[in-house]
Amino acid sequence: MKKILITGGAGFIGSHVVRRFVKKYPEYKIFNLDALTYAGNLENLSDIKNEPNHRFVKGDITDQKFIEGLFNEYDFNGVVHLAAESHVDRSITNPMEFIMTNIVGTVNLLNAARNCWKENFEGKRFYHISTDEVYGSLGDEGFFTETTPYDPQSPYSASKASSDHLVRAYHNTYKLPVVLSNCSNNYGPNQFPEKLIPLIIHNIENNKPLPVYGKGLNIRDWLYVEDHAAAIDLIFHKGADGETYNIGGNNEWRNIDIVKKICSVMDQKLNRETGTSEKLITYVKDRAGHDMRYAINATKIKNELGWEPSLQFEEGIEKTVDWYLANKEWLQNVTSGDYQKYYEKMYRDR
Ligand code: NAD
Ligand code: DAU
């Protein structure tokens, strides 16, 4: 039985990856390592918690001794590394947590894999999940490819860029068998409502202002989370050693347009008069150093591995809204307590 370590598996994307691997590969034992920070939630995995090939391990990737011990105990065949601090706004107010988890935590995992696997890398793989934000910000034209020079602009993206460089350095220097991917904005069920799409859904439901940063003209490329999980599965199994794959939705939206789109879907779902939710839109102070546009050229993964997004945005956003409306208890649980304090502090001065 192959032993696969998935880090960050109680988070948004990680939980979809864990579910996919647990269900699709009964011959694997999935070790799901997560520190359960504010962003990690075992409710995301309630449907698979008793599957015999799924084992949850609570632990922090910044704890070097613990990580070493875990590798020595289980001698994993592969690692799918998603654990990270992931919210740009939090990285602006508190960069140090991002340095610790995203850089130091990643190096702890690299060292533990290297020490445990020694020079015998046959059948082993270390897969590092990263973001398109490492490439910086685009103007009106062009797309990020795998050879676009790194130009990270926020503490979050700089910490992810550092970890990407370190992963590649371990491949080059120690021949650690690695693969990487850089993906655009994900959306879908189980996303913590600090991120744009679930925050807007949650606020519309509660008749609260919909905060749009700056003029709302920044552009993101949105991908449904299960399509990202499918790409991760493919890259983990079929990606070439040492390579990087860009993953994107080919689905660019200005923030203001996506907010209006969600307003219209929510008006329908909540049987509100058309235009009701749009009245809640409030332009607020812009994010510091706000990247203007991200757009991914995903030709490489399409040509080499045959991956393409399966869902159109119309369908994806409906599924997402339906999920949040059907899972009010999930939303209630994650937005009680600390979320209130975060929200008040983050949006008070905007
Ligand atoms: P998330 O914030 O929802 O989840 C992160 C998970 O990591 C949480 O479960 C959290 O508890 C865990 N974690 C945080 N610090 C930890 C630590 N020190 N030790 C162990 N676990 C820890 O993040 P997400 O949106 O699911 O993103 C997952 C990965 O994908 C990240 O590496 C992120 O950079 C990358 N990514 C995200 C997006 C996106 O749009 N969300 C897009 C591209 C890439
Ligand atoms: O591109 C991939 C990245 O996408 C991931 O690496 C990050 O982990 C993920 O958080 C996401 O980063 P963004 O900063 O693009 O996502 P966010 O949902 O925070 O914001 C999306 C856009 O919406 C961005 O231009 C800022 C804007 N925004 C966001 C919030 C939370 C608002 O206008 N209002 C808001 O309240």
Please summarize what this structure is.
It contains 12 helices and 12 strands. With 350 residues, it is an alpha/beta fold. The protein is globular.
Uncertain ranges: none
The average pLDDT is: 97
Bound molecules: nicotinamide-adenine-dinucleotide, 2'deoxy-thymidine-5'-diphospho-alpha-D-glucose
Number of helices: 12
How would you characterize the largest beta sheet?
Answer: 7 strands, parallel
CATH architectural group of the domain at 3-187 and 222-247: 3-Layer(aba) Sandwich
CATH topology of the domain at 3-187 and 222-247: Rossmann fold
**What letter string, H or E per element, gives the SSE order?**
EHEEHEHHEHEEHEEHEEHEHHHH
Going by CATH, the homologous superfamily of the domain at 3-187 and 222-247 would be: NAD(P)-binding Rossmann-like Domain
Estimated structural class: alpha/beta
Strand residue content: 15-25%
Radius of gyration: 20 Å
Q: Specify the helix fraction band.
A: 40-55%
Top CATH class of the domain at 3-187 and 222-247: Alpha Beta
